[in-house]
Every structure is written in C-alpha cells, then in structure tokens.
Amino acid sequence: MDTHPTRSTATRVDTSSLVIVPTYNESDNIRIVIDRVMQLDADLSILVVDDGSPDGTASIVREAMDPYPGRVHLIQRDGKLGLGTAYLRGFRFALDHDYEYICEMDADLSHDPDDLPELIAPVKAGECDLAIGSRYVGGVRVINWPLSRLVLSYGAGVYTRAITRMPIRDVTAGFKCFHRRVLEQLDLSRVHSNGYAFQVEMHYRTWREGFRIQEVPVIFTERTEGQSKMSKAIVREAAWKVWELRLRDLVGRL
Fold it and tell me: Which three-class secondary structure state does DSSP give residue 178?
C-alpha cells in the first residue's frame, strides 16, 4: 500500500464516473488525454496520480483544472512508487468521493479515451461489475507492437489462465471500469503487486469474489510519445504472482 506522503488537489462535483490515470514523465501526452476525456461526457471526471515526474507532468495537470472546474483532480506523490500503489491510491480517492464507476486508463494514448463510454455502459446497465477493455476478444486488436511483444502478452494470457482458471482472455489489461461495489468488497490492503501483476491480481480477486466480468473489444495502439515502462522485472513479477495467487487461494489465504 502507499504509505508515502501525498498532496491531493480535488473539488467534488456531481459526477458519477472517475478515470484514474497514473503518470510518470507523461508531459507529452497528459494534456491530450485530459482534453479527450473531458470532451466525452460531463459525467466524467479524471484523477491523475503522478509519481513526482521530473518532466513537469503535474504542472500540466494543474493548468488543465481551470478549463474543467471540479472535474480534473491531481494527487502528487513524492517518488516513483509504482503502478499498483498509484491505482490503489486512486481507488481510495474514488471511494472517499462517492464515485460509482471507477475506470483505469494509461496516460500514453495506447488506450483510446473514446472507448471509455463502451466500458462504462455495461457496468451502468447492470450487465457486469467489471468491464475489461480486451485486446484479445474477437481476434487480436493490437497496433504497432513488435511480434516479440505480442507473443509475450498473448503467451502471458495462456500461462495465467492455465494456472488460475480465470475465464478472461486479456488477463493483463489495464483499461477497465469497476463498479464501486467491487472495490468496496475487496480487501485492497492485501494487494501488493505492481505492473502487469497488479492487473492480474485485481482480475483474480474480482473473479474469486464472484463478481461478473465482461470483456469489451478495444484496439490497443503502442505509444508514439514518451518511453514504455515495461521491464524484465515487471514480467518476472507477473510470472511469479500468478503462482502466489493460486497457492494462497488453495490454502484459504488469498
């Protein structure tokens, strides 16, 4: 969990959907992301959780607050603490501020903001409790990835499903919408993963609690600006976390 000091800038307005966007050195993309989310629907707000980006990402977010009063929020953390803790901090913010539909989205435009309504709609309609933007439903929907990256991602799904039995094709997807009831029921204090492992763990815990999960086909486009946060350590963590989750579940200590 995130135990480091944070600074939060937020004003609550009457909206029901929050999009959480973790950032580290995303000054090239973050204003575009904010503007595109804000133009979708007045019901949408955005929370940027920035890990002390030295490139001025947080300053750009603050500049975006004036054109969208009460809809753009910022939490600044004092260092690079990781994707998982950023989302957990964002979840706490969302629950504390009474948001009903809570989304995850990357800051690099690999996730198309225009797909957000398609993720929120089935949750709002009561068709599911978690809607996942899936790259692997109805074919492979990835643009500009090298073959090695595609094989790694698709293979990770096969590996994870074989061990966990989760009925999810895109197990590492980071584009999704939760109903708040999911995050209220899960014991988030037990979630300690980062990177891809965090997404796998959240999917597994949601599924094991009996919540309904639906995969919505989306197109994933490799970033054109900034640098990927992918590393060998992230891949290793995800590979081991799958076994840890399954074994903890089997002994009743999930």
Answer: strand
